[in-house]
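Same chain as my last thread, 156 residues:
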Amino acid sequence: MRMTSSYLRSLTVMLSLSAFGATPGAEANRPVDEEMRCIKRLELPPYTPIARAARNTGLVRAGVVVGVKGEAAWMKITGPDPWLEEEVRNHLGRSEFQPSCTGKETVIEFVFILDGEPVSVPPIPRIQFVAPNRFVIESRPVQASIDYGVPRPNKQ
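reply #2:
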């Protein structure tokens, strides 16, 4: 069976959130834990080729208010780069939340890191969940390339 990167990202999130929800003790009662329980299915943003090529990094913080049908009814996204913010916004818009959390805000943080030597092909990002509400998306930078476009016909 061939697994797509989207499937693997979703599987990673489901496993991470399941493990997170099973945390015993007082830490499980923190407000952020309750916010994270509102997530039914989370679409993780990739590290966009444009953001990698521009070497954009940083923390993108997303506040999502859950709608009646479990959709993202309202979002406030803040971060250092509009490309990263837009990617987070697009993916959270395709995520699903628990309808029982209608009106509640869930705050999720995404940290984008570039590390290592530049590569010529788009690398597969490494995604980690860090409790209570942070996802670290790490990738290698992409080498700059020059696109000369379509060659002009010779004039004769």
